[in-house]
Design brief:
Layout: E1 4-16, E2 21-23, E3 26-28, E4 33-34, H1 42-54, H2 60-63, H3 77-89, E5 92-102, H4 112-123, E6 130-135, H5 141-144, E7 148-159
Parallel strand pairs: 5-6
Antiparallel strand pairs: 1-4, 1-7, 2-3, 5-7
Helix pairs in contact: 1-3
The protein binds magnesium ion.
Magnesium ion (MG) binds next to strand 1 and helix 1.
């Protein structure tokens, strides 16, 4: 029987005035927030897609459609929790997750530990198995111009 599965996820949302900035389930003070149908948490969306990829279950749009009014302004941790139920139902548990956030501003370093703690709890792993790091766009492209924030995630699943 296969012992491991791997999945990767990527997400990007535009920054807009009048929106909260929520990343990795953490409310982060900023003059703009990510625009989208749910809370637009690019970190948790990338993690959700990585989990769905690892179990071969398609993508976040197929399970939590942004055309479905039930998902409007929903906290994205709901998507992770519902996906984790699918992961467990298929006989897997998370080994570890690693996330990179691409953001020009605000500074995310003060918030990374809080994101890690939330991710660890949502995925049922120890804090050292949930890593979140941030990198800037160095002025290049849409991220560098602070037009949006993107996130990449990789997860490893092990047989439960
Ligand atoms: Mg998204």
């Amino acid at each position: 029987m296969t012992a491991f599965r791997i999945g990767q996820g990527y997400d990007i949302h535009p920054l807009a005035r009048g929106r909260r900035l929520v990343l990795g389930g953490v409310d982060i003070p900023h003059d703009r927030g990510l625009a989208g149908h749910s809370d637009a948490d690019a970190v948790l969306h990338a993690v959700t897609d990585a989990l769905l990829g690892a179990i071969g279950a398609g993508d976040i749009g197929g399970h939590f459609s942004d055309r479905d009014p039930r998902h409007r302004d929903r906290p994205s941790r709901d998507f992770v929790l519902e996906t984790m139920a699918m992961v467990r139902a298929r006989g897997w548990r998370v080994g570890n997750v690693d996330v990179t956030v691409h953001a020009e501003a605000p500074k995310l370093a003060p918030h990374l530990d809080a994101m890690r703690a939330i991710l660890a709890e949502l995925l049922g792993v120890a804090p050292d198995a949930a890593n979140v790091k941030a990198t800037r766009g160095e002025g290049l492209g849409a991220i560098g111009r602070a037009e949006g924030i993107a996130a990449q995630a990789v997860v490893l699943l092990e047989r439960a």
